[in-house]
Structures are given as C-alpha cells and as structure tokens.
Amino acid sequence: MLSRDGERVISYSRVQDFVHRPVELTYWSLYDYLRFTEVKPMSDNEREDAYNYIHSLGTASRLPRPGLLFDAQHPNVCTHRVRLISVEAAKYLTWVGGMLPRNDAKSPREEYCRVMCTLFSRKGWRSGLELKTVSQTWTEAFEGEDFPPKAVLVMKHMHELYECNDARHDYAAQRRSGNSAELPPVFASSDNISLGDLDLESDMRHEIDSAENMDIDTLTSLIQESDANNARTRRVFQQISDMHKLIDRIPYTSMADPLRGDEPSVDIPHLPSSAWKNLLTEARQNIIRQRMSALQPVTNDSTNANGVNTSSEYRSGNVSVIDPQGLEVICRSYLDDDYSLYTPTELVKKVEHDFSLNEDQLRAFTRTVAHILYPADGPLRLYLGGMAGTGKSQVIKALIALFAARNETHRFMVMAPTGTAASLVDGMTYHSALYFSHNTKTVSRRTLDKIHAGLEHVDFFFIDEISMISCTDLCRISKRLGEAFDIKQPSFAGRHVILAGDFAQLPPVAGGALYMFNVGQNRGAITPSTEDASLGKAVWHEFVDVVILRENMRQLGVSRVDIAFRSMLENLRYGACTNDDIKLIKSRVLGTNLPVSIMDRAEFRNVSILTAINSHRDAINNRASVRYARDNEQQLTKFYSVDNWDTNSYLARCATAPAHVRNELIRRRQQVLWDTPPSLSGQIAGILPLCPGMPVMLKHNEATEVCATNGAEGRVVSWHASSGLYGKRSIDTLFVELVNPPRNIQVGNLPPNVVPVAATTKAVTFYIGEKNAPFKVSRKQVHVLLNFAMTVHASQGRTRPYNVVDLSECPNHQSIYTCLSRSSSLEGTVVLQDFDTSKFTSGTSGDLRQEFKELEILDWLTEMRINGTLPDNAPKHNRASIISWYLQWKKGWLMPPKAHKSLTDKNIIPRKRVAHTGLRDPHAIRKVVSAPRVRSVPTTSIFWLPWDSCDWSCCYDATIFILWGLMKQNVLTFQVAVSENYGPVGKHILSALLALQTTADASHFSLVNCRNQWRTMLSELYPTEFAR
C-alpha cells in the first residue's frame, strides 16, 4: 500500500493494522477498513490510559474516547488509535504498482478469486485460514462468499477500467500502424483526458497511451499539483500583476544615454568558481592582516631614543607606567600619516575639525574619546539616537578615523543587524562576526575559539540600526561575547558598546523591540526565549549615556519647501503629521499632482524604487530589466538556476508510467520552480536576466571584509557561464562592481571595487499546490537580485538624492517614515501612487512614546553630566533608578526643552494601552484609561529596587523580593511561618509587608523604604553580623 505524507508518497503497510484491528471491527472487510478508518497518535494522557486499560484487563477492546484500540498484539497499541471516518469523508482507493487480476481469460481465475476474497470478504480475516479451508480452492471460496452489493459494484467497475485500457491500447496500435481509425467511443467524451491536455513535446516518439499500467486520475492530479496554485501564491501573483499595471502606465519615451561603445572591455581570465572564491578569501585575509599589523613589533629594538618602550606589548593593550612626556613620544613614534604630528589632545581636535562635528555629535564623540584615552570606571554604554539623517554614521566615521590615526583600528568593530546597514558603515553583520547560525542555538568550543581569536583585541563595538534588533538578539550578542571570552559579567564581556539607531524606524522582523513593555512576560511557564528577552531588556536599560542628535544633516535645503519637508519628517516620526504635512507629501504623488513624465528624466529613470513588499520589488525588477537592456542597446541574457530535488518522491504514484511521461512531469515541475518569483523562493532567483551595466544588489555576505555584504549595491561587469538543466544557461561566476563602497577594495587582478560572486547552493522551500505543502529544493545560483527596486528594510541607513517610493503597502507610520526619510530633498522625492493618510496621524504606541520620553530625559542628564551641572547624588548605572531619581528631583514628568511637542502635549493619547514594566507618566495613564482596552488579561507590573552602590544592598534586595512574592502567594501561611520562626525581626518585616498589602499596591518606593527599615533594625540588633 502507499500512503501520502503531505507532498510525499511513502511506502506503508496497513496489513498489520488490519490483522490487529479493534474487536469492534472484526467483521469488516479489508476494503472497508482502508476506506473508513485512519490511525492517529495518542496524546500522553491517552497513552497512559491505554496502557493501564490493556495491562489491567489483559486484552484491549475500546476506550471511552476518542477512538478504538488495536488488539493487544499490535506493537503500537499504546501509542496509536483507530478513528472512524464519516461516509462523506471516506477515502477513495487508487490501485498502483502491479496490475490487479482480471475477471476474464487474461488472468488466472484462482488468482483473481484470492485477491477479491482478500479485499471484500464481509467476514473479515486475521489469518488467511479464515477465508478458506485447507481443502478448498480460492474459486470455491469466492463462489461461496456472500459479498456486499457495494463490493460487487466495485469489482464490476474494476473490470470496466480494464476494458477502457484495452480500447486505448487498440487505438494506439492502429496509430502506430498508420491506420487512421476513428477514436474509440470511450475517448470521445470531453470529460476524458486528451493527449493535448498533457502538452508534450512534439518530438516525443511515444504517446501517453503507452502508460499501460497507469491510472489517468493519478496522472491528472500530478499535473495539477505541478502548479504553484495556492492562496499565498495567487496573492503574490496578483500583487505582481497590479504593480505591472502601475509601471506600464509610466511613459518611458526618451532613450537614456546608452553604454558608450568606446568603453574598454574588461578582460577577466576564465577560472573555475572555486578559484575566484579562493582569491576572495585571500583578499579578506590581507585586510585582516593589515588590521592586525598594529599588534606586531615595528623593529627588533622596541626602545626608542627617549628610552620609552614602543613595542607591540604596549600596542596589544598591556599596561605600562609612563609620564606625560613619554605618552607624547609614543604617540609620535607610531603615527605615520597626516595625524602623526599631533599630541593625543591635538589629534582629537584635528579629527573633530576634519569631520565638522556639530554640537550634539561632538558630545557623543567626546564621551567616547574619554574612554579611549582615559579609561573610566566601567565599560561605556552609549546610545546614539536621533531622527534619520542627523549624522549618526558621521560620528562613527570620526571615531574610526581617530582609531586609524592612533594605529588602533583593531580595537574597533562595526556591526549591524542586516548586510545593507553593515555595508554602509564598512562593518559586518553580528551574525557573521559572532557566528550565529539559523540552524542551531548552541555553539561549539571551536567556534568560540574562532570568535575569541578574531575579537581578542577589540574593546569597542558599535552596533548600528539598533531599532531592528530585538531584546532576544541583544541578549544573544552579550551572551556570545561572554562565552567567547569566558566572562559572564558584566554584559558584553566588559567591552565598550555604542548602540545607534532611531526607534521611529523599522522594528525587528521577529521578537520584541527594545522599547516594548511586555517583553519577556508570559502567563505560562518561563521559557528560554522569554528569559533571553527579559535579560536583553535589562541589558538595554544599562545604556544610560544617551546622546540624541537633532540637527538634520541629510535635508540641508534652506528654502521654504525644504524647511516644511524637514518639519513633516519630524512630525511623521511621532505619527503626528498636520494637514499641511499631508498636503505637502501629497504634492509628490505621481499622476495626481506630479506629471508621470518626471519618471522619464535621467535621474529618476533607473533609480531603485522603495516598496514595502517583496512581490512589488519583483514586479518592478521584471519590467525594468527589459527596458534597461533596450535603452542601453544590450541583449538580455537569462541565467537559470540548477535545482536538485527528489523526483522519485514526486513521481511515486506513477511508478509504472513510461520514461517520457515521467520526464515531462519533471520538466513541468522544474518550469514552475523557475517561474516562481524570488519573493516565493527564498530571495534566490530561478531566472536571472542580466546584461552589462545592469544594477544589482548582493543578497549574501560574500566577504564582509571587502564590503561584499548582503545589501551592497553594484553593477554587472561580466560573467562566466556554462550549460545547465535542459541546456539552459547557468551562471558560474558573476563579476560585480560595487557602487560607492565605504573604501576601495582590490581582489586579485580584477579592476578596483570589482568582486567575484560565485554560484552557491542553498536549500529553498517552495509551497506547491492548493494544500500549500512544502517542497524542498537544493538551488544553485548566484545570490544577487536586480536593483531597480528594493524593500524598505534594504534601504535603511541610505541617503538617496532621488527617492522614488511606494507607500501603498506600508503597514504603519514607521515604515512610511523610513521610506521618506531617505530623501535628501522634497524635490527629489516621488510617490508612486496614492496612499492611506490615516497612518500619518495615527500617533505612536504607548510603549514607543514612553521610550522616547525616557530617552529625552537621559539625553538631558547626559548633557548635564558632561557639562558638570548634574547633581552629585544622581545615580549612574540603571535606567530605573535614574528615572526614579529624576521624577523626585523634578516633581514629575517634566520633559526637557528640546523634546518634540508630541511628547509634552498631554492631550495626545497613545495608540493603544499595553502592559508596562517601567515608570509611566501619570498624565498619560489617565488619558489612556478612557481608551478601549486591547487585552482583558490583567498584567502585573515589575518593580526595581535601585542598588545602593555606596552601601551594598544586593542580598537585601533579593530577600525582600522573595519575601514579598511568598506573601503574595498565601498571606496566612506566610504570616504564621514568619511570626513563629523569625522573632522580632520577622515580625517587623511582616508588619511592614502586610501594611503594603492592605493599604496599596507595592511600588519600588515603598519596597525601598521597607528594605531600608529592615537593614537598620538588623544593624541595631546585630551590629557585628550586619555592620553598615
């Protein structure tokens, strides 16, 4: 027998199930048993009940619910049950494999009778001896059997199928002999399958009628399943069709400047893809060696004329005691560029001047330099915020220049959550840097040793686009560094960390954002994921040094329109746009207030269009590639992927079909895989149309050290190809010239900034058929996509002088803000079609608004700390304690003067009410109370006890929380236990906790008072044991 498991056809014998079927089904035939039953696994509770039932009675008959039990000899009697199927849902059996015996002279009568008795005997059987006696023949047993009427009807239809096959074979023989006889009547009906329905190649020598033993229904179902026809696929193709219609109405009339024929052709030697991979690896190693060269001795004699040691021992981080004059000599001794004539202080001033840092940027730069030159108390935890375009990356570039001037580039590493963001700041994804794998959450000791070796001398980490990193991700980064360096505390193995990003932009794709209140909250048991999320949230709250950049360095226009555009972006960041803001951006909608002919201008013609969904990106790339080749008088060459998949599993139901039919079905399925757009194939194109100069985007981290990262933009220079499946051209190596890389790179003898991208094999899962069943394919293709359009996620961090956007599918104001904030000016912005304006005025969620307010406060306090105006009693290490102190100092939620008006306006209601773990503005809470609740499940607030760093309170903090939790579980039991076992101290604590329980909900203020009273009493009663 054959059974189906999703798309797979697997061998499975149910004879054993029938032999050991439940006693209630004793008088069922094999045919009825197969049609009206199915075997289901039991739950854990059902397994236990079944075991007890069988072993207590010694036999098995039936459980009360939810199914029937096999008899006790069945090996799965305690793990699986038999469930009956209704008549409407009954299975229709299809006979595959060898032919069943026929009821005529073409099959032995004895064999036919044996099979029919086995299938349809109404007596049922558990052994062949139950069907006939030893002295009987199968013919006698068949004639003496009282078959049910339905069984007789099935046997009759089985014989009609053989007669149909005979007629078909006769007709096929007539065609082969050249006789043009008429089609037999059995094929004349339009309800039957014709040869044309199979669309076979014209040069095939055999026809479908050669499939002597194949069921027509099976073949038809296989053909239908070749189509990627499911709800998800239909939706994607509809989106592609809609975008095609939108793009087609743009009149691209004028020709762009074609590629000049006098441009020298690039002569690239033809090498195997493995050789190009080796050259790329060699280029990576060269860069790594250059970065680590600062750790090597300059000369054999490491003592200079002034008697100061300048060896690698100093440069690798070991401590040496020197005087100020010696420090200056050291700095001069190893600086060999334009900065080498400056003292450390002069060097910092020089970098500040060269990068034209504004006041806010200077604060962040100075705060970091203090830890570079003069190590402070504890590692740096700095958050660099501000709206898009305020120059966060400029601060990082200045720090990189400072490290380079000091010959200490090995001390600084830039990471980002996506390859796009990493490529813009000459960094790498944290997945690559820390060896995170999608397949497993564990890490081997060998991998940790690699991380340790690569990051041994790195003590400053800069992580960009922090808004796209979840709490769980931040915890994993901190943990991985701790595991690599075998340092569990403090976080990030004690390294200095700078986080940069704008929480008004895109949130994480998966997991809770750092500003979410309900991160780590779970009504059920605590899981590793919720624990990591809670720890990540706690790590994020360690970043109390905050600098918010406010001067927009991207939109620098001074005209009235430019000023209005900047104002619109500031309001959009908080979802608080005015009518004038909406009117302003509406003026840039194509075809409504802006002529469609503007897209024909050279600056907009081939610019990559920003869109929110992958299907729209695929549609734009599809149309634009043809136009680009035509405009530049180039031939568009299509390169097909090489796909390997399990054809035997796919064709298991037509095992007896002739080879040409099986090959045709395979070809059909392969064509479907090729035609599937990248949005449905793991972002790996089945068909990649290319021509010289074509803009492309890398979709894989080929080599982060040479700027060939996922999201890097480039243009096609050349390629090496070969013949692939069905004679289609398959690309082996694609040569891409990177566009505006962070620095110039050189790979072998290739032209500058040209990198080889070799075809790589990757597992891709397709979802085929109406059942949306997964279909796994091993696809070999270069991991690049055309770059006439990109998603919003790929655009984050970019500055675009000419920015064409599609806002129709943006889910919220954060996505819209990310799209529009890429623009350098309003004049360079084009909106492809109309959009929903309600998202511009929807406001921010309560948790995001609260995060903005707390960051504004921390920014203000950081500025006062740098300026020396912050009171001495201000805490320094934990956000909760700092905010609590601030509320007491300012008598409430007094917002800094630089905060946006939407954060100070008490009439603005956040978009929804959510559970919270931090301190909330009481005005905001009162406003939200009247709003409809999103969740009716009550939530419990979490309180912090600020740590007394001068008079350590850790053990008291932990104990008071434990006691509070025990009392909340059972007040009466807790009261008896404490009063009887802990004397006067216990009674005092008990009275204080009961007072909190009866008067009001506990807060961190009241628990702090209770803790301090307890400490004072213990110190007075036991001054030696509890000295303060």
UniProtKB/TrEMBL annotation:
What is the official name of this protein in its record?
ATP-dependent DNA helicase
Write down the required cofactor(s): Mg(2+)
EC code: 5.6.2.3
What's one GO BP annotation on this UniProt entry?
DNA repair
Q: Which GO terms describe its molecular function?
A: 5'-3' DNA helicase activity; ATP binding; hydrolase activity
Q: Which organism is it from?
A: Meripilus lineatus
Looking up PANTHER family in the UniProt record yields: ATP-DEPENDENT DNA HELICASE (PTHR47642)
Q: Which Gene3D superfamilies does this entry report, sorted A to Z?
A: P-loop containing nucleotide triphosphate hydrolases
Family matches, as Pfam families: PIF1
Residues in DNA helicase Pif1-like DEAD-box helicase domain copies: 357-579
Q: Name the catalysed reactions.
A: ATP + H2O = ADP + phosphate + H(+)
